[in-house]
Amino acid sequence: MQQRLDIISVLDEQLLKSYAVSQSDELAQQIQLARNASKIWAATPIKQRLAILCKLSQIILDDIEAITLTVMQVTGKVKTEVLLGEIYPVLALLRFYQQHAAEILAPKAMFTSPLAFPNATAGFTRYPYGVVAVISPWNFPLQLTLSPLLSALICGNGIIFKTSELSVPVGELILALLQKLALPEGLVQQAIGDATTGQQLIEQRPDLLFFTGGIRGGRAVMAQAAQHPIPVILELGGKDAMLVLEDANLERACNAALYGAFSNSGQVCVSVERLYVHQNCYAKLLQLLLEGVAKITVGHGAQGDLGALTSLAQYQTVAAHYHDALAKGAKASGPLELDGRYLKPVVLWDVTHEMRVMQEETFGALLPVMAVRSEAEAIALANASEYGLNASVWSRNIAQAKHVAAQLHVGNWAINDVIKNIGHAGLPFGGTKMSGFGRYRGAEGLHNFSYTVSGLTSHSQLTQEPNWFPYSEAGFQHMLGYIDFNFGSGNLWQRIRRNLPALQAFRGYAQSNMKQHTQNILIWLGIQRDY
Fold this sequence. Notes:
By secondary structure, the protein is of the alpha/beta class. Helices cover 43% and strands 18% of the residues. The protein is built from 20 helices and 22 strands. The strands form 6 sheets. The protein has a 7-stranded mixed beta sheet with strand order 12-15-16-11-10-18-19, sandwiched between helices. Strands 7-6-5-8-9-21 form a 6-stranded mixed beta sheet, with helices on both faces. A 3-stranded antiparallel beta sheet has the order 3-4-22. Strand 8, helix 9 (215-226) and strand 9 (232-235) form a beta-alpha-beta unit.
């Protein structure tokens, strides 16, 4: 009997729907269907692919309230969070790629030297991998599925995607939205199940794997993919630091810290999970934070700021970090209160780096605050983490803030703002260290879902090239002179004088190639395109 997944609403614990779990043989069939469809799709011109895919924006807008309700039921987010964190980034990404993807993916010509590559043109073209498997998490199931999925489709790939077992209805919604587009049959398909299904999907050997999740899952995915091998892009966890310098606007920093730490109840990979504050403004900012956290509302009422926890299992980590911090001397703005799935946010202070809350990813509504004596100490502590996803620096002196940000070991940073930087569709997003590797969004995002094929075309009619057989001592000396002329010390005339015999030996060869060299320059400047 086929295993089934019963999905409940986070809002009222009622059954939403029961789903059949994908079996291994079904996944094999899906991969083959996607591979066949991807060949048709890859042969479709990029501008036509974009015209089809960008119709999704209006489809989303036409159904935005129903989409919002579905995501709320599955994740527990408040509706504003759905708009800001799930829907807006997808619309922005589509708009950016509509404007720029064709140029990003266009073939590129490269300059060729008339001596090193005579009568030759060169360049590279980008190609889709084939079938991309997208495995997405439960905290942002719409955005973190659609963003890589659309990027892969724009490049010409087919898709098999699997949302978290907690988010299957959102995956079903995504499939329904995409089925309204004129896509080849089987180009996008959904796999349903838990981690075991994800493992079975990898065993079917997709051509590229994009995984978003925790470090434990990332390691397992990478190890399994390496057996085939399958290239992987990993977007893993974070322990994002917020550095408040002595001259920061404290009211703005306070409001940003509360939003950055508690947005989506802290269930954000780029949540503010460590707040370092210069000791000269620490007391003032802490007072503002304590006043601010008391005003945050929890629930799905008209004024609700924080929604429900998507996964109650995650609460165990939050509670462990909270109690560990208090046991080691930290103070808290209040007790850790869980009412059903609604968790009241807590500010912690007098924290140290020996506490778990400053070392491990919490992924919940805790904000630990720590005083530092200098910018140098703040930088050192921020970098003293196994993670390197995102960070923010706060100062009225923008030049100094940028100087600090440049020393942080992260994939992304913001000055005087939090979280918003990862919503910029033109900026590639991804981490360093244990936060993963690879990027999506921006030009680099499309580069990650395609690979390059380089080509060189010779137009020469010569029967012999200087680098071909037979070798001779004279030829060797000429090659030495040619290398010294190109790469040796001194100005142009000095290099010509000392290598004149070699240059004379190449003279007839070079003259016969000057016409093509002129064409190469035009190609390199973008005036012509021929390689």
